[in-house]
Specification:
468 residues, alpha/beta, 11 helices, elongated, disordered N terminus
C-alpha cells in the first residue's frame, strides 16, 4: 500500500516567507534611517567575483554594499534619475577601478568623481541622455586612463574636462554634436592635445546644423571661413554641406556651400577676395557700377548666386561671353540704372546654361523704342519661367512717353514702333485700305457671278457684248 505526503499549507507559506525575507536582506540593509531611506531607489544589485563586481538595475546606494572598500567594478543599468552625483554615491569605494552607467535617462553629472576613488581607471557612461559634465569632473582621478561617453546627448564639450595626464583613450561618437565654433577644439592635432586622444574622432557627426555630416570636416570649413572672412568687410555663413559621389572609389565626398553678405557696406566695386567655398554673394544696397570682376576675377568662377539689387549698374555688357554668365544660377539686378542690355548675349548664355534658375530685372528705367524693345520683349516672353519679376519690368517713367511705366511684355508693336505723329497719318490710310479691300471683294464676286451665268444661260456679260 502506497502512502502519499500532503504538505501542510501553513508550513509551506511560512517557508516561502522566510526565503523572501532572507533574499530581501541581501539587497537592502535593515538598519537605514528615514533620511537615507528617501535616497534609496527601487533597485536590484548583484555581486560577482566575491563582491568585487557589483551590477545594479534601476538604482544604487552604497549602503547596499556589504564591503564597499572591496568593490572594483560598479555597473549601473537604467539609472532612474536625471542627475548622478559621483561624490555622494561613490564616496567610500576606495578600491573602485571602473564605473559603468548604461541605458538610462541620465542627463547630468552633478559633481566630480570623489578623491576616495584614487584607483579609478575607467569611466563609461553610454546610451543615456547625458548633456552636461562639470569641467572638473575628473580632476581628482589621477589614474584615469579610459573614458567612454558614446551614444549620449552631448552637444558641446569643454576640452579641459579631459585634461588628466594618464588619460589616453576617449570615445565620443554617437552624440548630438553642435557644429559651431564652440567645438573648434576638436581640430587641435597636436600630440599633447585632448583632441588627439579621441580614438573615434573620425566618427563624430554633426547633429545641428548639417545633420549627419562629419564633425571634423564641418569644423575645418567653419574655422577656415571664419578666418578668411576677417579679410573682407562682409559677414560669412556656412549654408549647407552636400555629399557628392566620388568617381574614383565610390565614397561620399562632402562639399561645402557658403554665403557672403556684403549688403549695405557702401561698396563701390565688387570685392577682390572671397573666402573659399563661397557660392552666394549678397551685394544689395551698395554703390557698385561695374561688373567686370564677375568676368575677369578667378575668385568669382565658383560664385553661382549674385544679388546686386539697388546699386548703380548701367550695363551688363562686360559679362558678354564670360564663363560666369554661362554658369550662373541666380542674377538679381533689380533697382539699378539699366536701360538696355545685350539681349543676344544673354539669350545665348541661357540657351547653353543648365544652371540658370532665376533672373530679376524689375524696377530699372528700361528704354522702350523700336530698336531695343522688340528683341527684349521676345526674350522676356521666351524666358518668362526664369525672369521671376517680369511684371516689374517696365518702361522708364517719362511724362512725355505714352508707354511710361507700362509692362514691356504687354506692349504691342504699334505702341513700341509708331510715334504719335506717325499714328495720326495711319487712320486715313486704314480707311483707304478697307475701301480697296471691299472693292477687290466686289470685283471677284462679279466675276464669279458672270461665270456662273454664262455656264447656265450661255449669255455673255453685258460689258463683254459692248466691247468691239
Amino acid at each position: 500500500m502506497k502512502t502519499t505526503f500532503k504538505p501542510n499549507y501553513y508550513l509551506v507559506t511560512l517557508a516561502m516567507t522566510l526565503i523572501f525575507v532572507e533574499r530581501s536582506s541581501e539587497d537592502r540593509p535593515l538598519d537605514i534611517d528615514e533620511h537615507e531611506q528617501s535616497d534609496i531607489l527601487s533597485s536590484c544589485c548583484r555581486t560577482e567575483d566575491n563582491g568585487q563586481h557589483i551590477r545594479c538595475f534601476g538604482g544604487f546606494h552604497k549602503r547596499w554594499l556589504p564591503r564597499p572598500e572591496t568593490v572594483k567594478v560598479l555597473e549601473i543599468l537604467d539609472w532612474p534619475e536625471r542627475t548622478f552625483d559621483p561624490e555622494r554615491h561613490l564616496r567610500g569605494l576606495t578600491s573602485l577601478e571602473e564605473v559603468k552607467i548604461v541605458s538610462s535617462n541620465l542627463s547630468k553629472i552633478s559633481s566630480r568623481f570623489p578623491r576616495d576613488a584614487l584607483f579609478l581607471k575607467k569611466v563609461s557612461i553610454t546610451g543615456t541622455d547625458l548633456q552636461f559634465l562639470p569641467r572638473d569632473v575628473f580632476v581628482d582621478s589621477p589614474n584615469l586612463r579610459y573614458v567612454d561617453l558614446r551614444n549620449n546627448s552631448l552637444g558641446t564639450m569643454n576640452p579641459q574636462t579631459f585634461e588628466v595626464e594618464p588619460l589616453r583613450e576617449i570615445y565620443l561618437s554617437g552624440n548630438k554634436w553642435k557644429c559651431s565654433l564652440d567645438n573648434s577644439w576638436i581640430l587641435d592635432s597636436r600630440k599633447v592635445s585632448v583632441a588627439s586622444r579621441i580614438v573615434d574622432r573620425d566618427k563624430l557627426r554633426c547633429h545641428t546644423p548639417f545633420t549627419g555630416r562629419p564633425l571634423l570636416f564641418v569644423m575645418e570649413i567653419i574655422e577656415r571661413l571664419e578666418r578668411e572672412c576677417k579679410l573682407t568687410p562682409c559677414d560669412c555663413n556656412l549654408v549647407y554641406i552636400v555629399n557628392r559621389q566620388d568617381r574614383g572609389d565610390g565614397r561620399r565626398d562632402p562639399m561645402a556651400l557658403a554665403s557672403m553678405n556684403c549688403s549695405s557696406r557702401g561698396l563701390v566695386s565688387l570685392p577682390n577676395f572671397l573666402p573659399r567655398n563661397t557660392t552666394t554673394l549678397h551685394l544689395a544696397n551698395n554703390k557698385i557700377t561695374d561688373l567686370s570682376s564677375l568676368a575677369t576675377n578667378p575668385e568669382y568662377r565658383r560664385i553661382v548666386d549674385v544679388y546686386l539689387n539697388d546699386n548703380l549698374i548701367e550695363s551688363i555688357a562686360p559679362l558678354e561671353g564670360s564663363h560666369w554668365l554661362d554658369h550662373f544660377r541666380l542674377l538679381d539686378l533689380r533697382g539699378n540704372k539699366l536701360s538696355d542690355l545685350p539681349t543676344y548675349a544673354l539669350e545665348n548664355a541661357l540657351l547653353q546654361s543648365r544652371n540658370a534658375a532665376s533672373i530679376y530685372l524689375g524696377n530699372n528705367p528700361w528704354r522702350c523704342d523700336c530698336s531695343f524693345t522688340p528683341g527684349f520683349q521676345d526674350l522676356l516672353v521666351r524666358y518668362e519661367r526664369l525672369i521671376k519679376d517680369i511684371n516689374d519690368v517696365k518702361c522708364s517713367a517719362d511724362a512725355r512717353d505714352d508707354n511710361s511705366n507700362k509692362q514691356i511684355r504687354e506692349l504691342t508693336r504699334t505702341e513700341i514702333c509708331v510715334s504719335p505723329e506717325e499714328e495720326s497719318w495711319l487712320y486715313p490710310l486704314d480707311v483707304l485700305n478697307v475701301i480697296l479691300a471691299l472693292l477687290i471683294l466686289l470685283i471677284i464676286g462679279k466675276l464669279v457671278y458672270d461665270y456662273w451665268s454664262f455656264k447656265k444661260t450661255g449669255n455673255l456679260p453685258w460689258l463683254v457684248t459692248k466691247i468691239p
